[in-house]
Amino acid sequence: MLMAMRKLRLLTAVTATAAVAGSLLILPATAIPGLPANIPVNLPSGLLPDDMVQQASTVPGIASGVDVSRWQHPDGGGIAWDQVRTDGQSFALVKASEGTTWTNERLVDDTSQAAANGMQVGTYHYARPGGDARAQAQHYASQYNQVGNHSLPPVLDLEVSEGKSPEQLADWTREFMNELETLTGRTPMMYTYRYFWIEQMNNTQEFANYPLWLAAYQSTAPDPVGGWNKLDMWQRSDSGRVNGIAGNVDLNLFNGNEAQLNMFSAGQLQASGGKLEGLTVNDGVDLGADSTVIIGAILALAAGAIAAPALADAAQNANLDGLPDVVNGLIANDNLPVEQLETM
């Protein structure tokens, strides 16, 4: 117990002096026997390989959700929606249709199972503006009506122009949204991304009366576009991992807590807000089994028990070749309290 506490004090001192802007390292409970889990250590941005960055599937106090399509059914496998819900996901949006002919054969199965596990459920239509807007709205509505537990607003996924000018695309969008609202009796939600809306839709403000679901793969919630004064949903990643889903999946945050999400799903579209504004999500880094050797080597180097090559070997084995330079740089700049650490 005393040795564990000494290591914790040592690690805390290293952490305090190594706090540089960049990736946030979360040490697992197995990093050093006896240490508590989830000890944060800041490392420089870009030091760690992309495949070691682990995006948190949830954010405390904010309703989290996923959107899925056929890509989440590799080799025809299913989604374990009970595990998805247990992993903290509060809502699911399932691709229902595309163009005037494509439909999702897993639509009813996915939506019914997600709802049965206590999730708010929605669907979306992938727009093909080269085709007729009313026909696509009718096609989507026919799929929407198969989902008996559809709680979230129906969604137009608009991310390609297919040669239309901003004015033509706005006309197409208006026709689709009006037809869809007539057929479903629901106010639809718009899904898009910043560059597309600004460049291909000329940043029009015409559609700001609809809820907005904006894609932006970054750590800080984006500002709204096109006259909207808030986001209703933020799709923040296309490479998340959630229990129950094979492979990568899109991660989303609703602009509110679960109670607000329930009100939004019940048709109170003004219930969202107050959670995403100015939000920054700090995703962690999982060192897995390599952490014991690496952290042990850092502590030993800081205490003068080993030479730098030993740390270099441990870092190289974990594909962290730049780590020794960081630690040695802190020592060289007198930012690592070596004397204090040695007396602990």
TrEMBL record:
Belongs to the glycosyl hydrolase 25 family. The keyword Cell cycle does not apply. CDD domains: GH25_muramidase (cd00599). PANTHER family: LYSOZYME. It comes from the Bacteria. SUPFAM superfamilies: (Trans)glycosidases. InterPro entries: GH, Glyco_hydro_25, Glyco_hydro_fam25_subgr. Keywords: Glycosidase, Hydrolase. GO terms for molecular function: lysozyme activity. One of its GO terms (biological process) is carbohydrate catabolic process. Coiled coil: none annotated. Pfam families: Glyco_hydro_25. This is Putative autolytic lysozyme. The lineage of its organism: Bacteria, Bacillati, Actinomycetota, Actinomycetes, Mycobacteriales. Gene3D superfamilies: Glycosidases.
